[in-house]
């Protein structure tokens, strides 16, 4: 782990997770929203690309790691005091919420242009703006469907003081076991109790259902700074591969045997092992071209996550029109998929622009937060810190 909480490997994982989600969603558009008859022969490809949703549990694990890492370092250095919570929440607010609202506005404009204002649910938009849209099926997707994870992320932050206290009182592993018990107990209850459909689906995405994944990341942060000892095998790539493979195997059995209860926690363990392996095998010197590209995407991965789906949805009518051209009839190729994939450069460009002019200024503002949560005045004549270089990660 590089000094100052910056890691090229972390940004590579972030970039990989963000691109995986982008691929998953343009596959959804191609095979479900704008399908062609010829696409049926390629259903196996839709299945494979659909596994891009695993970028979400990877993001949850990385989030727990990055949020807890500064405090884990402070504890390792002998500073045992709790974080300044007003400053913590103020930094989280500036880091995430203004870009979130800006992306929501972009999504609203695009949806209005494509579908018309009458098709936009203002109740869903309001619920999404206040991060309470995940409690009901009518508002869950809203105008920017992937934003459900941001609501869960906000719940993780609200629960972080409790996690910190549990670690202080019960130890790192003891806290992890308590959170595992809470997560599994909640997931088993949701699985066993016949809830109304309007809340039964969203209940699986309350933070309690995914809490274990996030706290696993915090435990990896404690391990990374030497405050907790874990078996050497946790950094072995083969072990991460085996556990991830087991999670993929469960995809075909979850509903038959009720194993859905353990699927997300198992993926959380797999990606915690991936994180341990990545940190252990981080190397000095220049990364490969692929590594540099993924790290670069990781820098603006939050912007990419916020914007990619609204842009893809805006392209769907055009893709549907192109895919129905008679000249393409009879070709047994996944034309809808190819056209949706071709929109990705636009998505990446828009995300970089959004990062530069919206997300980055919010990061800089958050860095001026004082312990009481207020903003320190900007000192005249002091230059702003430059944007992070490609391959450098901001963990705060």
In short:
The protein is mostly helical and 396 residues long.
Walk me through the structure.
With 396 residues, this protein is mainly alpha-helical. The chain has one domain. The chain is 68% helix and 0% strand. It contains 17 helices and no strands. It is globular, with a radius of gyration of 21 Å. Mean pLDDT is 87; it is low at 1-5 and 382-396.
Low-confidence stretches: 1-5, 382-396
Count of folded domains: 1
The helical percent reads 55-70%
Oligomer: single chain
Distance between the termini: 15 Å
Architecture blueprint of SSEs:
Blueprint: H1 8-33, H2 43-50, H3 55-76, H4 85-115, H5 122-129, H6 137-140, H7 148-170, H8 172-192, H9 197-203, H10 207-224, H11 237-250, H12 254-257, H13 260-280, H14 289-299, H15 301-323, H16 335-341, H17 344-366
Helix pairs in contact: 1-2, 1-3, 1-14, 1-15, 1-16, 3-10, 3-13, 4-15, 4-17, 7-8, 7-10, 8-10, 8-13, 10-13, 11-13, 15-16, 15-17
Task: Give the tags.
mainly alpha; 68% helix
């Amino acid at each position: 782990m590089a000094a100052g909480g910056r890691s090229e490997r972390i940004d590579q994982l972030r970039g990989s997770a963000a691109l995986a989600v982008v691929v998953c969603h343009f596959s959804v558009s191609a095979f479900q929203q704008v399908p062609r008859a010829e696409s049926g022969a390629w259903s196996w490809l839709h299945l494979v690309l659909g596994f891009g949703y695993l970028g979400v549990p990877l993001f949850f694990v990385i989030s727990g790691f990055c949020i807890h890492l500064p405090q884990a370092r402070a504890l390792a250095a002998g500073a045992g005091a709790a974080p300044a919570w007003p400053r913590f929440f103020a930094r989280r607010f500036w880091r995430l919420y203004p870009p979130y609202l800006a992306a929501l506005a972009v999504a609203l404009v695009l949806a209005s242009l494509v579908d018309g204002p009458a098709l936009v649910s203002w109740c869903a938009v309001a619920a999404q703006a206040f991060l309470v849209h995940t409690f009901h099926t009518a508002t869950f997707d809203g105008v920017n469907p992937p934003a459900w994870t941001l609501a869960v992320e906000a719940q993780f932050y609200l629960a972080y003081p409790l996690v910190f206290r549990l670690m202080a009182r019960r130890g790192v592993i003891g806290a992890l076991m308590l959170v595992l018990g809470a997560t599994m107990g909640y997931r088993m209850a949701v699985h066993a109790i016949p809830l109304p459909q309007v809340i039964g689906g969203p209940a699986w995405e309350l933070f309690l259902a995914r809490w274990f994944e996030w706290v696993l990341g915090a435990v990896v942060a404690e391990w990374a700074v030497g405050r907790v000892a874990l078996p050497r095998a946790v950094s072995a790539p083969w072990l991460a591969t085996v556990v991830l493979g087991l999670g993929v195997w469960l995809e075909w059995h979850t509903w038959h045997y009720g194993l859905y209860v353990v699927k997300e926690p198992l993926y959380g363990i797999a990606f915690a092992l991936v994180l341990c392996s990545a940190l252990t095998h981080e190397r000095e010197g220049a990364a490969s071209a692929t590594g540099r590209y993924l790290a670069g995407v990781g820098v603006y991965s939050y912007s990419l996550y916020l914007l990619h789906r609204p842009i893809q949805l805006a392209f769907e009518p055009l893709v549907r029109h192109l895919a129905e051209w008679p000249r393409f009839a009879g070709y047994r190729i996944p034309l809808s998929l190819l056209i949706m994939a071709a929109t990705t450069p636009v998505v990446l460009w828009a995300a970089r622009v959004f990062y530069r002019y919206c997300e980055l200024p919010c990061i800089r503002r958050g860095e001026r937060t004082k312990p009481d949560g207020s903003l320190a005045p900007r000192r005249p004549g002091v230059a702003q810190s430059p944007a992070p270089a490609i391959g450098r990660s901001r963990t705060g």
